[in-house]
């Protein structure tokens, strides 16, 4: 099972085991990651599952679709590495991925 590391804005790291095929949002919610409220339940309509996925981790993520990009424009403090966790599907290749959580969602 791929391990995903959720890192809070204060640097606290929580490592969770995710299942391939589930979303990063589902993995976060299942493990009580507070910053991921996921109010719309994964419909790409709330932005409360926003995260930053830093580059340079040796892991290539699928590109964001138009709907995700449009929603990211509405979140607080969007950055080039912004993603919506509900739109990123976990794969075995993501083992060890670090996902940073916005301070605004704590
Ligand atoms: S859970 Fe609402 S946009 Fe991701």
From TrEMBL:
Keyword Lipoprotein (UniProt): no
Alphabetized Pfam families for the sequence: Fer2
Record key words, sorted: 2Fe-2S, Iron, Iron-sulfur, Metal-binding
Entries under InterPro entries matching the protein: 2Fe-2S_ferredoxin-like_sf (IPR036010), 2Fe-2S_ferredoxin-type (IPR001041), Adrenodoxin-like (IPR001055), Beta-grasp_dom_sf (IPR012675)
GO function term, MF aspect, one: metal ion binding
Cofactor: [2Fe-2S] cluster
2Fe-2S ferredoxin-type domain ranges (all copies): 2-105
SUPFAM superfamilies with a match to the protein in the record: 2Fe-2S ferredoxin-like
One Gene Ontology CC term in the entry: cytosol
GO biological process terms, semicolon-separated: P450-containing electron transport chain
Family stated for the protein in its record: Belongs to the adrenodoxin/putidaredoxin family.
PANTHER family: FERREDOXIN-2, MITOCHONDRIAL, FERREDOXIN/ADRENODOXIN
Protein name: (2Fe-2S)-binding protein
Protein source organism: Pannonibacter phragmitetus
Lineage, broadest ranks: Bacteria, Pseudomonadati, Pseudomonadota, Alphaproteobacteria, Hyphomicrobiales
